[in-house]
Amino acid sequence: KQEVTQIPAALSVPEGENLVLNCSFTDSAIYNLQWFRQDPGKGLTSLLLIQSSQREQTSGRLNASLDKSSGRSTLYIAASQPGDSATYLCAGISNFGNEKLTFGTGTRLTIIP
Amino acid sequence: DGGITQSPKYLFRKEGQNVTLSCEQNLNHDAMYWYRQDPGQGLRLIYYSQIVNDFQKGDIAEGYSVSREKKESFPLTVTSAQKNPTAFYLCASSIDTRALGNTIYFGEGSWLTVV
Description:
By secondary structure, chain A is mostly beta strands. Chain A contains no helices and eleven strands. By secondary structure, chain B is an all-beta fold.
């Protein structure tokens, strides 16, 4: 069964810094991995989707990477802004089994102005 | 605009009551999902549906029921058998459950509180 872990649970960084959020998964037979953003009391917004055949995806200041052999994905945020403050969740689908998303518990990011 | 609409945003349930959360999507997606979110536990899958008139139990289906009579609608009923229903409920949809390169879209969520 796929298990997804995100450490740390919370992170605070000064505005303007570059930062990396981590996501670890136990099943290397992962089909794809998605990164989501969640604002307090709101639903999730998909940020980036990485297929297993890809190593990274980029959207604006965001870059997500996937390393199946090490069981890790990272979300890189460049030149952080206060508006980036939110909880970031990763979720993966394994190749085998029920093909449903397994979510991590998220990292709550605070950008300090 | 296309999207997923959940209602109500806030709902209070008395002990022993059944309540139904609405989820409607106009994205023409085949697959729909219900997740429950508790603090510090991430999202857990309650039920999912791959197509009209079909649905499957997720990881925590006990005490919940669903129906999928129309492609655009996937209501969730929280029954009195659900002993700890206070949570944030999220509905989602995707083109299909395999999510082969398909993004999953979420509604804004519904807060359910037992009083």
